[in-house]
Amino acid sequence: MTLVMAVWLHDHTQKQIKEWEKYYGLSAPGFVEYLSTLGLRHYDHTDKPAWQQVLAETRARGWTE
Predict the structure, then answer these.
(1) N or C: lower Cβ tally within 10 Å for the chain?
(2) pTM check: above 0.90
(3) CA torsion angle for 51, 44, 32, 55 (degrees, to 10)?
């Protein structure tokens, strides 16, 4: 059995990131920026190059149609 798992398919909105920043008491701008870019797609549902690569790799292995 083969498994590929992505934690976040989409980035989170800046509003969500700001809420996490307050909730967790984050004060490191670099870490906050990192959290806002973990998705394979942008929060507006447009593709990042990483998502296109995931699709290409899964198709090449016959894992998707």
Answers:
(1) N
(2) no
(3) -10
Dihedral angle, C-alpha 51, 55, 58, 62, nearest 10 °: 170
Residues paired with 56 in a beta bridge: none
The domain total for the chain is: 1
Give the per-residue pLDDT at 45: 92
- CA-based end-to-end distance of the chain: 18
What confidence tens digit (pLDDT) does each residue in 5-60 have?
Answer: 788 899 998 898 889 889 888 888 888 888 888 999 999 999 999 999 999 998 99
Residues 13 and 44 sit within 8 Å (Cβ to Cβ): no
Kindly state whether residue 33 falls inside one of the protein's structural domains: yes
In a domain, 9, yes or no: no
The answer to whether position 5 is within a domain reads: no
Domain of residue 27, residue span: 14-60
